[in-house]
Amino acid sequence: MSEKKLKSISVFVPEEIVYDSLEKIGFVVQETVTTSSDGKFWKKTLYIKGDETISVSEELGDYWPKDPIVSIYGLPNTIQQILGDLDAFL
Amino acid sequence: MPSFECNETQFIENISRLLESENRFIVNRRVQIYDDRRYGPASLPDEVFIQFSSILTRKGPRSSVYAKTHFLDDFHQKVYFLQDLLHSSSKMKYPILHMPYYKVEYSFKIWGNLYHFSFDVLFKPKISIEQKKIVKKMNPKIEENSTMLIHVLQFEPPPERTLAINLPKKVLVLDFKKANNPLEN
Fold first, then answer.
1. Assembly ipTM
2. Phi first, then psi: what are they for B17, rounded to 5°?
3. Count of domains in chain B?
4. Does residue B128 form part of some domain?
């Protein structure tokens, strides 16, 4: 059985595309909170599937381009699927 | 000792790379509650301010915020009245109504260098209408104690799992309250 890996990426992809990609492979939203770091406000959404966890941090406010931070602790196959979906959008 | 501030991606990717190299290490974490007027309603983005829309009003981000109705801030045990100024655009650093939050600070030391990443998690506002006892100390304008039906603003602490970042189980996370080294405070 594969060992889970860590991956954190910042992508110029709308948050909806990221959410769709995660939900397509079975991740479910657990929590959404407002956080602040680097002098910005973020919407942080926590997704879980079994013991794999993913957080998506999306900057709040009126700005462009949007580049959510996706931090994954999951199986290599999960990471590949998500990166593939996001690459396909770009 | 040099110290390095990271954003979330940098911090997690640094750990990922160190793990790949099979270095084992400890990550320190400090979680503290703050209620120091850092976050007032005028400074919130629209997506967050909308959660207060039944009791607060403003023209836009960084505009002055006023009470839309009488309400009790249950967390701070204060009552505000219709049209009270709660966060002035000319005094952004001194909001009258403010939100509590957890400050979460992660850091690890390797080869004599310190890497750290911190973020604040705001308490979530919850607004309801309830029968509450209103006493004089809640606002100097109150002349006598009474019980009334009033909008109540509560702040719910965020779930503990939102105070963490994704890290593998083999990373040992040690929580601490205070470091003696001023660089780590």
1. 0.88
2. -65, -40
3. 1
4. yes
